[in-house]
Specification:
The protein contains 5 helices and 5 strands, in the order H-E-H-E-E-H-H-E-E-H. By secondary structure, it is of the alpha+beta class. The chain has one domain: 2-Layer Sandwich (Heat Shock Protein 90), CATH 3.30.565.10. The N and C termini lie far apart (41 Å). The model has no long low-confidence stretch (mean pLDDT 81).
Length: 157
């Protein structure tokens, strides 16, 4: 599926649930070394969950920020937050949360495993009474190359 089509489907999902959906801009020159399908699958899963669990007539946002060494992709929703006991269970296989039990309960589990295989981190921050912020943190490509390059003091690295 082409990226434009995926974007259109996500916008359609947001409109169908009376949600506003904002996507922040990012510098197109920023690069990460990641399997494109894994990253797009993880983002699609996080957006699908955000649209599914966010209260109608509220907001979902996709933001990206960049530091010298990392790229951070955040999906913020207004699901009302999570009970503290559920946070540790979120990324377990075959666990479903909330009242909508469509799906297999594998999306967050597989997304986290895929992002970890790419050298990244997938985490969640709970905002009680408001919602959640799911974050994908990946090393920048130029930082990975710098770390792999032999240092002048250790040419055999």
């Amino acid at each position: 599926m082409k990226n434009a089509t995926l974007r259109q489907l996500k916008v359609f999902e947001a409109v169908a649930r009376n949600l506003t959906f904002n996507v922040g801009m990012v510098d197109p020159g920023v690069r990460v070394l990641v399997d494109r399908q894994v990253l797009s699958g993880a983002i699609a899963n996080l957006l699908q969950n955000a649209f599914k669990f966010t209260r109608q007539r509220s907001h979902v946002a996709l933001k990206t920020s960049v530091t010298e060494k990392r790229v951070l992709i955040e999906i913020e929703d207004e699901c009302g937050g999570l009970p503290p006991s559920k946070i540790d269970q979120l990324f377990q296989a075959f666990r479903q949360h909330g009242q909508d039990h469509t799906g297999l309960g594998l999306g967050l589990f597989l997304s986290r495993k895929g992002i970890e295989q790419c050298g990244g981190i997938l985490s969640v921050k709970n905002i009680p009474g408001y919602g959640c912020v799911f974050s994908i943190e990946l090393p920048r490509l130029d930082e990975m190359r710098r770390m792999e390059a032999p240092s002048p003091s250790n040419p055999e690295h």
